[in-house]
Predict the 3D structure of the following.
Amino acid sequence: MSDGPDVPTPEGGRPDAPRPRRPVFFDDAELEAHGGVVDPVRQIEAAHASAATLVNAGRSTSDPAVTARLVALVEDLGLSTLAELWSERPARSLPGALWRLYVLREWVRRDPEEASREYAAGIRHTGVDHAVAGAAEPPGPEELRAVVDAVLAGVFDGDLGVALERAAAFCRVVAAGRAEVSDGEPAARRAASLLDTATDLRVCATLWRHGALT
């Protein structure tokens, strides 16, 4: 079992920069020995080990090119790979928090117009959260892309607790705006789910500060 995803050293980066590897739960012989069924305990271990390795790799270097590659991990590995690793882990865990941060970034990247519309609508209801999230004004598509990239970069080159709190605040602003500009029960459920995510990320920030986010 490897510890984490492949993050090639960008051109011009330090030759000794950490290069965590793509996680592999079992090789072919191990899968055959288990009848093709992956051991769930090994899956859990791989999820937490890869999350810790990724964060440690990012925080052990000051190379902004490495941070940029970690932020853009979905483009290298695909969201489905991260889902296989982390999506089943508890929301209040390191892999669970990372999964939610990458999903949030991917949503903004794929649908920046909707993201900016909902975020802008939520600002007047959540002024403090808007300040914590740190989005520039007016919060257009490019500004939203920039802030989610900055939040995720903070996991690797800043205070991880602050990064999680910024993400939580961002979610609360979007949830407030979504409730205002979108009608119907599905939109209300999505807004409520985003509020739950915000709560989970805030709790993760507290756990990190107490050395208990694993």
About this structure: The chain has two domains: 1-78, 90-209. Residues 1-78 form one domain. The longest helix spans residues 185-209. Confidence is low (pLDDT under 50) at residues 1-28.
